[in-house]
Amino acid sequence: MTRLSLRWRLVVAGAAAIIVALGLAAAGLAALFSGHVERRAIAELEVHMDQVLAGLTRNETGDLLVAPPADPRFRQPYGGLYWQIDLTGKTLRSRSLWDYSLELPADDIADGAAHVHRIAGPGNASLVALERLVSLPEPLGGGHARAAVALEAAELDAARNAFIADLALYLVLLAAVLIAAGWAQVGIGLRPMRRIGSRIAAIRSGRAHRIGGDWPAEVRPLATELDGLLAAREADIVRARARAGDLAHGLKTPLQALMGEAGRLSQAGDAAHAESIEAIARSMQRHVDRELARTRVAAEAATARSDPSEVCRRVVAVARRTATGERVTWHLDGESQSPMVAIDAADLAEALGALVENAARHAQTRIELAVRHAAGHVSVAVRDDGPGIAPDLLEKVTARGMRLDESGTGLGLAIAADIAEAAGGRLALANREKGLEASLLLPVAAP
User: Fold this and answer.
1) DSSP class of 115
2) Does this model's pTM top 0.70?
3) Domain range spanning residue 283?
């Protein structure tokens, strides 16, 4: 049950309650109907009792006789309807009993009172018997007579079973209607939960910033708390970005001063120490630039958008004028109507610039840029015909602080990877038959 959705929990619980309630209702109705049928049967037996007692007569020889009631079942052997009168020393019974005598309980009955019993009848059939003790008038010889009229209970059971069979069909239909109504009610009641999911998805994609307050009273506290959490998280992020930016900017001035000191050392003739200090300062400068880029991209991720094909054209136009770019052939394969991507144009240009600079450094004769749209993202690939990267280094080259050589040229790939991840995408590297393919996989911007 814990793995079921909230909808299924409510539907299953509601269906179980409906089934139990209708089952209890069916049992109650069956009991009421059975009692009603038995009361009707006893009323019918009282009519037959009056007919039997009214038919008591004495013949010419003085023997008591009973004029048979009109119901033909009294004259048919084991016909299901019986009467019997016990007199002093003599028993009169209906033709339907044939050679069978009703065994009545030995109870005390007041004169004129009636008792109802369940007794065994012919063929061990269950009977509903009405018993009465009457005083005979003098013309009939006086004394007391114990009269009984009985009906086979199978007729009552058959009527009750027929009622239950008819009732069951309607109860099944009623259960189906009530369960369907419960399903619809649960769907309507849980509709705000689906809206909350859609609103949160809109916040993640940048199309909305808050859950809002247009919710039912039961859901409004949740929406309010979520908005409060979003506001607190945004404030924390703003503070963290500001601190990171302040730290990076605070390091730039000392680094520039350090580079100046290295220049003065070189002029003073200490070239070896100067080069070492400059290498350390350049490495630190790259790390500072990397953190600044990540901070800037993350801050603009919610609303940024750019045209990848246009950015590729601008980057290629600049790269062709560089010393490394003049010696290779450039080819741009961009879709004419590629969708906008969720990243600022300057940030995308910086990431592509790092990839293009790396490709130009290692390419032999040709560099290709390709823009493709598939499965909700846009791929911007930079391919060169250089030596590629050793397979065991493909996953490590974009790691923080990883360098392919002592000059630190691998840091550009790491910066490109950081910019892509901050925008919600990633950098994919793969060796082709000849050269390296570096692809920025970026999310499509919300419309």
Assistant:
1) E
2) no
3) 206-300
